[in-house]
Amino acid sequence: MVKSYLRYEPAASFGVVASNDSNISYDSSGKHLLSPALEKVGVWNVRQGVCAKTLALLSTSSRGGPSLAVTSIASTTTSQVAVGYADGSVRIWDCNTGTCETTLIGHKGAVSALRYDNPGSNLASGGKDNDIVLWDVVGDETTGRFRLLGHRDQVTDVVFLDNDKKLVSSSKDKFMRLWDLETKYCMQIISGHHSEIWSIDVDSEERYLVTGSADPEVRIYTIKHESADELQGSENSGAESKWEVLKLFGEIQPQNKDRVGTVRFNKSGDLLACQAAGKMVEIFRVLDEAEAKRKAKRRVHRKKEKKGKSATESAENGETVSLHGEESAALVVTVTDVFKLLQTLRTSKKICSISFSPVKPKSGLATLALSLNNNLLEVHSIETETTTKTYSVELPGHRSDVRSVILSSDNTLLMSTSHNAIKIWNPSTGSCLRTIDSGYGLCGSFVPGNRFALVGTKEGKLEIIDVGSGTCIEVVEAHGGSVRSIATLPDGSGFVTGSADHDVKFWEYVLTQKPDQGSKHLSVINVDTLKMNDDALWVAISPDSKYIAVALLDCTIKVYFMDSHKIFLSLYGHKLPVLCMDISSDNALMVSGSADKNLKIWGLDFGDCHKSIFAHADSVMAVNFVDNTHYMFSVGKDRVVKYWDADKFELLLTLEGHHAEIWCLAVSSRGDFIVTGSHDRSIRRWDRTEEPFFIEEEKEKRLDEMFEADVDNSFESRYALKAEVPEDRVVGVAGKKTKETLTATDTIIDALDIAEVELQRMDEHKAEKAGGKFQPNIIMLGLSPPDYVLRSLSNVPTNDLEQTLLALPFSDALKLLVYLKDWASRPDKVELVSRVNTVLLQTHHNQLISTPAARPIMTSLSDVLYPTVKQFKEVLGFNLAALDHIKQIMSSRSDAPFRDAKKKLLEIRSHQTKRLAARTPAKEERQKKKKQKSSGAGAWSGQ
């Protein structure tokens, strides 16, 4: 009989507040901060310091994998949040309910930039595949509009302009591109940067666009709008200036010379934050036009005074003086007149991301949130003179990687250590119960009774922790080198430590009382020492207390008798030092993991090596047997957890989920769950389920996954000629070919074949004029052939429809075009029919022209589709006009529902008034010149 095993699956992940691979962002209300936590997004109420919600996909398989790491976050004015992932997908989440509404698949590489337009109806995504995809996110069905190609390297940021008619993108190829979204044309390519452009942003009034790069200055560009073009007139604006929307205004010199990581305006646009790659954020005040002109006048006045005082200075500054001599007629405002350094914010650790709160605080100018690279969130209040840290989220996670995890004997407590703190967790819920300051903890164990715990540090000390009060009650100078391993004696009377000072020490628990304290507390005393020839990297004690095994730095394992400390076995075979060991509960087997990536299974009776397994792609960091079995778990620097059968020497499961090296592992006493700690600062729990599996099935799954992973690197795709990308524009299909789109294509082809056979049967039944009733095909579920094909087509997700139709052969596309005439008469299917017709015509245009059989189909389709679409468009236009009229009536009656709309209307009117005021002097001057010309012409005619 084939043996079955029980499957382990990912159950919980905790300990991560903010990961480094993505940006942070406030939600629309400003109450919650969206923070990336590896493959999840935490919705933090920073004021309370609690995670209100987690946006995470439910993993149903053991192969979640590190490919779903969050790489970009964008929020809009509604409850929608867009999250980009490392596999190239974008998911739209509802922040209120915490559910994923749509999955958009369009990039071949990680999503590196996300931005909503102002109404929140369009979403632009840029990826490491150098492409930009524009998505229509209105309604329940999100669709990809088109793909913009042109950048030669990773897209780093995108921003909408000019009422969302234009898009500006930046890239690591040192260029910015300005795209016209209506014509899908690259209007302008902005050069001048000498290094990669990392971030761009535009203020709310769209006056200035700011770019941050590795250059020593931050560049400011002015934005020319279409209305300004109309005012200038066609005579003054040449062919080049017409397309020159972005014009360099100047540069500002930040104090920090590191590369600029992020530039962001606040919502009102009066503050600009420049975050460097180091520990500094510089806050600039953005002055309005009146203040900037006053500052420019003062600057000119000061320079005139200097000119009068010193002739030498005037000679040295001759160009400047002559320049500002012209300013007396037309004052020139420079960058320094508009952008004024307000505050410099410094942090203790490097800053990963910044985000302004959309809500202006009652006191202060703005609220700025920071994510640091030590798993920390901070919120600062920006005031006129100072910046104050108001909140921070730090308790739920370690500041550095997790070096060890230890479970209590009853599996109710979990202790983890890092470079400066010890944390006690509830492994069931993932909540942090205690945080204790400590040294660099490398190993630990719980004292029997679980009231106290021991931690061995890198400094060679033993720290005794009171778990209940969360305090360190004593620090013992145990070793002259780092304490690498702690092994508890099976009888609970003491423990053994192995250290880098070549000593293995035996300890016993004692109760001591200090003179100034009334109660006794736990302490330890050294009862024996075993000298080694090299560093002791790991210590393991057999459950029957008969043997103690010590792994040394010279790649050997020494096995001693516990009572006499005489050597019993010397185990050789590993090519690199052994980093971990464990002995099975029946004392029969010992497993060792090494930096040579191998696991070796030893028999403790004779010291023979039963099997050497090439287990991991990197060093094996921890290995543990499940109690009362010969099953074991191993973890390594290759980021995976592996489940083994030590009797059959077979790999049972591979569990993926961590995003960095795994340092430690703990198995529960019942074997119902395991806990792992990693360099990515996360602690993960994996639970045993009731689902059985078989070794052969898992082998087949692994082979299939290897085959699928190799499909993208096939001979055709690897050596195919790559098309040259023009400099001006290339518009591509928004979606991406996936297994889902290919499956949908097969479904449509099958439906077309079944419908064709059914139509032939119906024609034969009519020709025979049989008296019996026609028996329809049971597969068609009682639907007519056109309805059955329409049902298959409607089941395709809207975002995948284009890629699904692209994979259709011409013969099947021709069959599908025949059905469009019948479907066009249905009002609810007009949009679907138009999309299908457009894609098929664009894809098969040349073949349709050259195929005589297609002409009657296209003629009949044009006769039906044009009037139907026109009628549908008129209905939509009438409804939109009616809704706008109702909105105006309601806004005139009540101020409450449309306060924002009224405010925006007032802003537009004031902006138009300013432009009209600026236009009036120019108009008067033109009229004056016109009168002069006409008077001159009259005088000439009089002569």
TrEMBL record:
Residues 295-309 have a biased composition (Basic residues). Residues 295-323, 910-943 are annotated as: Disordered. Gene3D superfamilies: YVTN repeat-like/Quinoprotein amine dehydrogenase. One of its GO terms (cellular component) is small-subunit processome. WD repeats lie at residues 81-103, 104-137, 148-189, 190-231, 395-435, 476-508, 571-612, 613-654, 655-687. One of its GO terms (biological process) is maturation of SSU-rRNA. The keyword Nucleus applies. It is found in: Nucleus, Nucleolus. Coiled coil: none annotated. Belongs to the WD repeat WDR3/UTP12 family. SMART domains: WD40. Its main location: nucleus. This is Small-subunit processome Utp12 domain-containing protein. Residues 311-320 have a biased composition (Polar residues). Residues 787-888 form the Small-subunit processome Utp12 domain. InterPro entries: Quino_amine_DH_bsu, Quinoprotein_ADH-like_sf, SSU_processome_Utp12, TBC1_cilium_biogenesis, WD40/YVTN_repeat-like_dom_sf, WD40_PAC1, WD40_repeat_CS, WD40_rpt. The keyword Repeat applies. Keywords: Nucleus, Repeat, WD repeat. One of its GO terms (molecular function) is snoRNA binding.
